[in-house]
Amino acid sequence: MRHRVSGQRRSGLVLPERERRCAAKINFALTIWWPKWSLAIGVGMQRAMTRILVLWPMALACILAGVPAKAGPWPRDAGSVFVSIGQSTGQWGETQAYVEYGAAKRLTMIGELAHGKAGMRTLASVQYALAPGKRGAQAALALGVVITSTALAKRDARLRVGLSWGKGFSGRLPGWMALDATADLGRTAVTTKSTTTLGLKPRPGWMTILQVQTETEAGALRIHGATSVVWDVRKGLSLELGLRQGIVGTRSRQVKLGSWVTF
User: Fold this and answer.
1) What is the 3-state secondary structure (H, E, C) of the chain?
2) How many CB atoms are closer than 10 A to CB 182?
3) pTM, whole model, 2 decimals?
4) pLDDT tens-digit profile of 111-139?
5) Which end of the chain, C or N, has fewer beta carbons within 10 A?
C-alpha cells in the first residue's frame, strides 16, 4: 500500500507523509545536540534525511555502520528503522550515531559510528533471531566487522561474533532482561565483552535501564555499572539520560544524553 502523499514538491521529490514525519523527528533530535546549528541545518537536514529515508534505507544502515546494546535478541519488524543519536561526557566521552533496520522477519542490520577522545569506531553487523523459546525467551546470533582508529595507531579491523538472550516479564512492574556477549577477533588479540541488562517500566511513557558491562582485553579486566532513564516524548521519539561508572579496572565516569527515533 502506498503512503498518502502530501506536502510540497521539493527539488522534484514529493515527500510522503510518513517520511516527512520521520525526518522531522530526526531533525528535532539533531537540534537537541547542536542547537547553535539548528537554523542552518533545519530545512536542509530535513530534506537530506528525507531523501535518505525515501531512497536509501539500506544505505543508511551501512553508512552509519554496529552499539549501545539496544538491539538485544529481539528483531526489528521488517522495514522498520530505529535511530539513536547520543553524546557522552567524561574522560572517554564520545558522540555516537546508531541505527537498526529490519531487513526481514528475523534479520536485523545494525550500524554504529562513534567518535571521541579515544578515536573513531565503526561497526556494521547482521543479527539473526532464532525461533522464540516455549516460555517466551528469545535468542539471536550476530556477525559483523568493527574498525577502530586512534591518533597513535593505524586502523584495526576485527571480526565480531555475538550471542544474545532475553526474556520479557509482566506484572506490577513489567520489563525485560537480556544477556549480550561479543568477541572481537583480531590477528593478534581478542577482546570480549558482556552486558547484563534489566529494563523496567514503572509507568507508561517511562523506562529505567540498569546494566553491568564487562570487558577483557590483553588480560585486563574492566567492569562498568550503568543506569539510564528513558522518557517517551511522543510516539516514535524518546529521550535518554544515563550515567556510567567504572567499578573494576577503571574509575572513569560518563554522563550520556541521547535521543531515540523509531519509524
Assistant:
1) CCCCEEEEEECCEEEEHHHHHHHHHHHHHHHHHCHHHHHHHHHHHHHHHHHHHHHCHHHHHHHCCCCCCCCCCCCCCCCCEEEEEEEECCCCCEEEEEEEEECCCCEEEEEEEEEECCEEEEEEEEEEECCCCCCCCEEEEEEEEEEEECCCCCCEEEEEEEEEEEEEECCCCCEEEEEEEEEEECCCCEEEEEEEEEEEEEECCEEEEEEEEEEEECCEEEEEEEEEEEEEEECCEEEEEEEEEEEECCCCEEEEEEEEEEC
2) 23
3) 0.71
4) 999 998 778 999 999 999 998 887 889 99
5) N
